[in-house]
Amino acid sequence: MENVLVMEKTSTSLCHVNIQKADPSDAPMIASVLQEAATWLVDGGRALWSGADISHQRVLQDTTAGLFHVARDDEQIVGVMKFELEDAYFWPEVLPGTSAFIHKLAIRREWAKKGVSIELLTYARVRAQQLERAHLRLDCVADRQGLRKLYEDFGFVLHSVVQKGATSFTRYELPTAE
Question: Count of alpha carbons within 13 Å of 27, Cβ hemisphere only?
Answer without folding.
Answer: 16
